[in-house]
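Problem statement: downstream parser choked on a complex file, so we are re-checking the raw output for the magnesium ion run. The parser issue turned out to be on our end (a line-ending mismatch), but while we're here, posting the original submission so the record is complete.
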Amino acid sequence: MTNSYAIAVLPGDGIGPEVVGCALEVLDAAEERFGFSTDRSTFAAGANHYLETGELFDAVEAQLRDKQAILFGSMGDPRVTPGILERGFILEMRQRFQQAANVRPVRLYPGVPTPIAELTPERCEMVIVRENTEGAYVGRGSTVHAGTPNAVAMQESLNTHAGIERVVDFAFRLALGRRKKLTLCHKTNILVAAGQLWQQVVAEVGARYPEVEVDYVHVDAMCFHLPLTPERFDVVVTDNLFGDIITDLGAVIQGGLGVATSANLNLDGSAPSMFEAIHGSAPDIAGKGWANPAGAILSLALMLGHLGEGEAARAVEAATVEVLGSLPSLAGADMGASTSELGSRIAAIVREGRADTALVPDSLLGVLAGMAPSRLAR
Ligand code: IPM
Ligand code: MG
């Protein structure tokens, strides 16, 4: 009997459908090569659907909940007021499905150009674990006297012991399987209340993982060290907003937003995890074939690792790295091939069993295999 997985596909807006189309072609190839299958349900969520129906995450929550994993493209459109889709869909999904850990590998792959002079792949191989349901992202706050010179805006950051603990514990387990080094990134000298709770939880949880060395860095200093001495970091655990910011910097170092990817993991099996590239919908280049599908295809690799198809995941990652390394430029008109051509090239390497897994150490997929329960179909 072959393994079969029920997955939801949400291509979304802008370049989302183009890059997710590539990921699905690669998924076809992986299924052929590795002998598993997926039952895919595609959902028309995003700007068009919202403008036509007014529907956001609520409308699909029940249908998504049954799935074993969610492959997500990107959302955002100039016709929709900023925040509506982000809050009403992406953040709703992360919070309602308790996708507590946003796992963002920052890896410079061989052959991929980086703006950091003399940086080599051996020196840039870390995973940033971003708390994904709390902090400033809970959207609590209020404004009084709005629109007047007396306006007062309060924006709160919510930090719970339980919410921090689950993501910190995940980060320690991850560190245990890697270089056994965990760095907490925060701003404890200024955000004293939240910072103390984070430090306390790291100390408590760390006592259960005596083998793991614990380090601390302020988030501003992180922005200094990340490009210059990335080798200092292996697993970094951080608050939601800091994680959002430093992973864009991480993406730059690893070759741009076209390459960076992420897993939004539910850690208790109560709802599906979601896999997405870090880039947005890039409406300015949508339809031109200029988007790099690597981020989306690597998010497929993360999803496959999560579902337990580790061999397929590694092949997809290696094929992507090989094609990335052959490009004259990582995005835009001078990428040397269109979005869909790149997808087909990567799919062909996977299908024909030509993926050279020596190109990638185990790390990206070691991240996920068995670390968070993949949700079983009911
Ligand atoms: C990300 C994005 C999202 C975030 C937006 C689109 C809501 O920037 O995934 O990093 O802020 O988390
Ligand atoms: Mg972001």
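For whoever reads this later: The chain has a mean pLDDT of 95.
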